[in-house]
């Protein structure tokens, strides 16, 4: 049966350069168009951690050098990342739709997401962005620029920035129009550009919202049947990266709470994915499903053959 599906695509699954990303999105587009062919309605949210870090670093470097480049504020870097990732994804999906003779179109909505100005995320940076560094490199950059770094799930050290929780998707009516019109939308890129409400209107703030939490919000607002979080691992594990690692096929909300307390899911990577799925499942008015798996395994996971299914 045709389902309304929100797909949250990991920023790391998009590669670490525009050239690599353009290649990788071709496979992503094929998997997504296969789902569209089966009649499913698709909304795509995506990450931007590596990309927004790269843009921010490049713009900062250029503005400090001799080239005539102004300082680029962080929210603008986030909007730039939505634009170029969305451009690659929509081009690849539209090419694939045309090749398969499907009369639909995919478009990116530059999306703002309201956050609370007093969110505790502003005083405790947790969102890893940009490239991975060695411990020594990260300490050197930290001294030079005052950035905070953390060790990211055994993969190296990364800069972390504030990550407030998503409160409201500003462009949700337009997103609904696109979906109700039978087309495909790319939205809440990088979790959405974070904005706060002021007396003068919306105002961008320097932070990166977790795209899994924004995708769950989108799935709830648009009454989706399914939230699929696609990342680099096929299943969620307990004792991750340890000799006694156990991969989970099913994760109940009750077990998720227990494992969260025991510290099995890393902050800024697996924890927000599990929390996003939990939030969607618990608050959905429908008998909805949430799945965490890898891009390559998406179709199999929808058929219930792999991935971690999060259940009530
Ligand atoms: N308990 C866990 N189970 C599986 N993966 C985990 C776990 N804890 C941390 N991870 C790491 O989290 C990563 C996914 O987070 P991240 O790379 O931030 O996602 P994204 O694909 O959204 O960029 C996995 O590739 C893995 O390295
Ligand atoms: N914004 C965001 O959640 O990005 P990643 O998926 O790259 O962490």
Automatic annotation (TrEMBL):
Pfam families named in the record: AA_kinase (PF00696)
Keyword Transmembrane part of the UniProt annotation: no
Gene Ontology molecular function terms on file: carbamate kinase activity
UniProt keyword annotations, A-Z: Arginine metabolism, Kinase, Transferase
Pathway linked to the protein: Metabolic intermediate metabolism; carbamoyl phosphate degradation; CO(2) and NH(3) from carbamoyl phosphate: step 1/1
Domain of life: Bacteria
Stored InterPro entries: AceGlu_kinase-like_sf, Asp/Glu/Uridylate_kinase, Carb_kinase
A GO term from the CC aspect: cytosol
Family, per entry: Belongs to the carbamate kinase family.
Protein name as annotated: Carbamate kinase
Organism of this sequence: Anaerosphaera multitolerans
